[in-house]
Amino acid sequence: MPELNPLDYWHDFWSRPEPRRFEQCSPHVLLQRFIAEPSHRGGLDLEGVFMPFCGQSVDVDYLLDQGLTVVGNDLCQRPLVEILDRLERGVEGTKVASRDLVRFQSSGLTLIQGDFFHLVPDDIASCNLCYDRAGSVVLPPDVRRAFASHLAALQEPGDRYLVLSNEYDEADVPPGSNFPLPFSLPDLRSLYAAHYEIEALPLQLE
Questions:
Q1: Which of 100, 91, 93, 51 lies closest to 74, judged by CA?
Q2: 37-76 as b/e, with b when 16 or more CB fall inside 10 Å?
Q3: Is 54 within 8 Å of 74 (Cβ atoms)?
């Protein structure tokens, strides 16, 4: 089974007091545009959204406010607890010992702490959209391919996968900057064409 970055690395990452690279103050504008325009969804009637590598993203709050069921997954427990604290939901985790997972559930929200590759289809059965806010782009290339295959196995036929990617010339980026990793449309096609029909949506940051 592919391995994500060591758990100790992510515990350290989430324990740092300084602002984190992926921290948000508001829901991602491209997600909001996607939700607001039905034509972007190809007629899909949204029921629930699965967010792998969700961290403590405020996109969770936004999706819940739209009346959608949300299932989030992260390797570490701390960012999931931050979400629950922010939403003022005092929820105790339930261990799924056979798969080394911890599940937190509360009124339309399920947060699962543990390895993405330990998830099974029933874990995200309430979701017909996977929303990847550039989380998978930080994976090593071999793990990216395993992620694509496992995600396709988790989803039902007709489910959708929305991934936000980044394209830019790495030569233009100052050394040591915190730009997200570049992930182009050809990169996406090479990973996902065997599992999904790929469509580049007219959604771009201005």
A1: 51
A2: eeebbeeeebebbbbbbbbbbbbbebbbeeebbbbbbbbb
A3: yes
What's the chain's Rg over C-alpha atoms?
A: 17
127, exposed or middle or buried, with CB in 10 Å at 0-12, 13-18, 19+?
A: buried
In the block, tokens 């391995």 appear at 3
Question: Token digits for 180?
Answer: 């997200």
A 10 A CB-CB count for 120 gives 12
Residue 185's H or E segment, with its range, is helix 185-192
Residues 6+ apart with CB under 8 A from 4: 75, 115, 116, 117, 139, 143
Could you report the per-residue pLDDT of 27-70, keeping only the tens digit for each? 988 899 889 888 777 778 899 999 999 989 999 999 999 999 99
Do 160 and 128 form a contact (C-beta atoms < 8 A)? Answer: yes
**CA–CA distance, 128 with 105 (Å, rounded to integer):** 18
Query: Considering the entire predicted model, what is its pTM?
Result: 0.85
